[in-house]
Each structure stands twice: as structure tokens, then as C-alpha cells.
Amino acid sequence: MLTRSIAATALRLARGFPILVITGPRQSGKTTLARTLFADKPYISLEDPDERAFAQTDPRGFLARFPQGAILDEVQRCPDLFSYLQGVVDARGRMGEFILTGSQQFGLLSSISQSLAGRAGLLQLLPFALEELQAGSVLPASLDEVLLRGSYPPLYDRPLAPGDWLPSYVATYLERDVRQLLAVRDLSQFQRFLKMCAARSGQMLNLSALAADCGITHVTAREWLTVLEASYIVHLLRPYHQNFGKRLVKMPKLYFLDVGLMAYLLGIRDAASLSTHAARGALFETLVVSEWIKRQFNAGQAAELYFWRDNAGHEVDLLIPHGEQFIPVEIKSGATFSSDWSAALRKLSGLFGPTALPPVILYGGSGRYQREDCQVAGWLTLAEPDWLACASPANTTR
After folding, report:
1. How many C-beta atoms lie closer than 10 Å to residue 237's C-beta?
2. What one-character DSSP code corresponds to residue 204?
3. Which helix (H) or strand (E) element contains residue 128?
């Protein structure tokens, strides 16, 4: 098992809350993390029909089996259990007693806010970060291979190719779980919706156009997208709102949280075809955004990221909060620096004034250096513990 960066955060929260909740997409490693960090606790999966029936019909008796707490996996399958958990942890007054995992954040968050407010620490675990793959010596050597493979754990701890595992993941988890939640009757429509979302990763989200392309209503598209977001398949990146004297675009941008899943849904089956593929830029941008979201989640923080775009089309791909300031980041998949990449960054820095830190250009090449008042960093810096620090003036090479 690769060491997960979120482990230290999980142990810290377990010392301060009676309940630790670990949520994230299916197959992201939640169960493995919980059983590794809390190996002394009994493990119960509520996917097991007998255990689930026991928890539903006799919740007090079910919880009484665990005087020292337990790991309860896929706990969203038994939402009524949360109210009884509240009474148990309040009576015992011990920290880190129960570890709960679940794959659907809307069910978990609703139950936590109703029954476990103030009693549960929440962690969101996504698939492997490049930093974790690098530390485990399994990071693919080429950017194209990273874009094709993505970062779901089964693709690194088993002898599986993306083309073998991802079709099963889509059919077994996405189509089963999401279709059940939405009561989707037409599988082909939902499959088309998934592929259309993948084709729009890195773009402004126009729900009306997305719905029309999929042959569904605007309301249906919104419902389906909400569930994909709650299931950690996609993320909506919000625009940064500040009065620059011009009207800013308010629509969010859509991103997949795993670039390999996105590539599969786009029909890309080998790394060789990626070098000239029309979606390569969107795939690389998706990789960068998802990597920073993982860093924030692993630190126990919310995904506080933005993009900036004005009505004249000037855009900066990513704004990363840094204290009271922002780091503007431009994302380019090309391997050779181009001087026009820094134009939007310089414009934004002028508008932000002292609130903007020196801008960063993250690109598909290698090395780290300073060019035209911008820090330029190759894609491998994403695997460094702090790639923004690696791209700082004090750590540049020409």
C-alpha cells in the first residue's frame, strides 16, 4: 500500500473528534486507509446484507457490540444509525471511537449536519496524488501515461491496464450507483451524458447546451450533474468575484476529478495517441486542477480554488489562495515555453495589485526557471511536496 498524504490529518482529527468520517469516490482507498490507520478496531461493512439488516432493525444492539468503537464502512447505506451513534459517543466521551466511510457525500453530510454536528471530523479522500505515486516509486515516466492512467489505486496496486479496469468501474460503480440514485431508465442517455461531461472538462459549464446535446431537459442535466459532483466524479470550479470595473463571467468551469476516467470516456485507449489528441490540453488542465484539490483535501481543507475570466475573454486558469493573497496559475500542456502565455497573468497581476503573488506557468515540459516575471514549472513539480515553492525564485534553474 502506498502511504497516503491524508494519514496525518486523519490521525489528528481522530484525536479531537469522537467520530472520523472518510468520504470520497468508490475505489479511492477509503477502506484501506481506515483499516490501516485504525487496525485495532473491528471492521464492519454495511454493504453486507446481514449487518445492514441488524443495524436497521436493532441499532442499539448493533452498536453495543463495539464497546471500543469500530470502523463502519459504506455507512450511508444505513442513515438511521447516525442518531444512535450520537447517543453512544456522547455517553462514552472518547475521541476517535468510530471511523465511518462512505461514497456519497450528500447522504453523509446531511446525516452529519442533522445528528453529528460538532462530533465528527470530515475527510475527503480522492485517488492517489502524483506526490504519493512519486513517493511510492510508481509514478509513470511520461506525462501522456499519467493522463491515460489517472490515479485510482487499483491501477497501481494490481497488474491492471486502464483499458481493463476503467470499463468495469464505469459499469459497476458509476452506472449502478448513480443510476440508482437518479432512477435513470435510459442507460444510453446517461452514458452520453457522462461522455459529454468528459468532453467539457476544463470548459465553462453551459447546462442548457449540455442538456440539448444529450437530449434531456435542463432540470435533468442539473440533477445528474449534482449527483456526479456529490459522488466525487466532477468538480465545479467557481469564478473569482471582485470588482475589476468589468463584468466577470459567473458560470463555473467543469472538471473531472480523475484524468484517467476522463480520457477513457473520451475514447482514448493508448498513450501514443495523446500527443496529438485535441483534448490533450483539457486533460492536462484537468490533471493540474485535480492535483491541487487533492492537496487541499489531504490537509483537511475545503477545495478553495477559483478561475478568473472577464467579458473580453481574458482568463487565468487557476487562482490559488495564499493567505490574503492569490497565486495566479496558467496551465499549458505544451513542452516548449511561449512568450504569449504570460500575457493574461501580467494583466491579472496588474488588476489584483498587491493581492497577487508572482504568477506561475505550469506546463507540459520539464525544469523550473523564471521568465518574463513569471515562474515556469514543468509538470513533474506537481509530484513535489510543495510545487509552488519549487517554482519560487529561490529555487529556479535555467
Report:
1. 21
2. E
3. none
Collapsing DSSP states into helix, strand and coil, what is residue 296? helix
Measure the CA–CA gap between 97 and 397, rounded to whole angstroms. Answer: 49
Query: Domain span at residue 324?
Result: 314-395
78 CB-near residues (< 8 Å, 6+ apart): 46, 52, 55, 56
Query: Do the domain assignments include residue 301?
Result: no
Of 35, 86, 40, 77, which is closest to residue 55 (Cα–Cα)? 77
pLDDT digits (tens, 9 = 90+) for 285-342: 999 999 999 999 999 998 889 998 877 777 889 999 888 788 889 999 998 888 778 7
The pTM assigned to this predicted structure is 0.92
Same domain, 87 and 218: no
Cα 255 from Cα 143, distance rounded (Å) = 18
Angle at 39 between CA 34 and CA 40, to 5 degrees: 130
- Give first-to-last CA distance, the chain, whole Å: 37
CA angle in degrees (0–180, nearest 5) for 297-170-176: 95
